[in-house]
Structures are given as C-alpha cells and as structure tokens.
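Translate structure to sequence.
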C-alpha cells in the first residue's frame, strides 16, 4: 500500500511539474514587442501576460494567405499566424478577444472566429513588414475571398489594424 501511495505521489508531482512547465514554456521576447496578450491565458512569459516579438509570432507557425480586402487594391499576400493557432499556443479558454490598436480603438472578436481557415493575425503584407503607417504592426484579417460569409460588415468591423494588444475575456 505504501508503494502505491509513493507511486501516486510521484505521478501527481510529475503532473504538477509538467503543468508548471507548460505554463512558462513561452520564451521571453528578444526583439521589440509587437503584441501583448492578457486575460484568460495559461501560457505566459511576463507577469501573467504573453509578450510576442516577431520571432515568437513566427514560431507559432507562420503561414501565408492571399486575399483581396476592401482597403487595398488587388490580391494581397499576407504572412502571419492563424488566430486559431495563437489561441491554441496560449491555452486560451475565454469567450472573446478584445483586440486593441495603438490608438486605443478596440473591437471584440468572438473566440468562434479563431477556427482553422478563419481570422488571421498578419505581420507582413506582400513580403514586407507592416509599419504603423501601413496598418501594422499587426492586422487582423479574414480570408475574405475564400468564403462569401467573410464579405460582410461584421467581419470588416473586426479587421482591426495597428493591433498591439489582446485581452482574452472570460
């Protein structure tokens, strides 16, 4: 019986240690921070928040998509991270993402938009990083050309640019 208690204790310690390791698996940013994520997240690297530089965002799994937008001319190539992948990487469990821009403009994006093939967090357009003057450092876009439902005012309104912070709402 004592051996069973010791084994259970060792397994519980391993589970607790693994959970603690996962909660701090995100390395600290080494370059300029482009995005702060706070709120209902389980993976952090700064006082209960997750701070991302460009390399950390790319490390989530950078992808490219091509789409037209109502703000640009012609098909654009965006490089960035699917919002779905960001939410998975941070263990997000909330109901919505309050996305806020450099000028404090904010929109709420339902977590339901963070699905494969859905909302996309772009950090480059047509092969170039986006400056604040050019809708950067980050721009939430949708694959507008991939599904007619994304060509609607509700998705255009959620397409916040100059994004620099996200608060995950409960």
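Result:
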């Amino acid at each position: 019986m004592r051996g069973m208690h010791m084994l259970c204790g060792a397994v519980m310690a391993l589970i607790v240690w693994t959970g603690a390791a996962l909660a701090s698996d995100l390395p600290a940013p080494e370059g300029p921070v482009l995005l702060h994520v706070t709120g209902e997240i389980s993976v952090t690297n700064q006082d209960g928040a997750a701070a991302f530089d460009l390399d950390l965002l790319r490390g989530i799994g950078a992808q490219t998509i091509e789409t037209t937008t109502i703000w640009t001319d012609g098909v654009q190539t965006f490089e960035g991270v699917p919002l779905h992948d960001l939410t998975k990487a941070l263990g997000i469990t909330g109901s919505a993402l309050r996305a806020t821009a450099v000028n404090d403009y904010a929109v709420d994006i339902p977590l339901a938009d963070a699905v494969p093939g859905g909302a996309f967090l772009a950090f480059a357009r047509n092969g170039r990083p986006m400056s604040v003057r050019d809708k950067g450092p980050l721009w939430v876009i949708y694959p507008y050309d991939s599904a007619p439902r994304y060509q609607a005012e509700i998705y255009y309104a959620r397409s916040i640019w100059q994004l620099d912070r996200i608060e995950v709402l409960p």
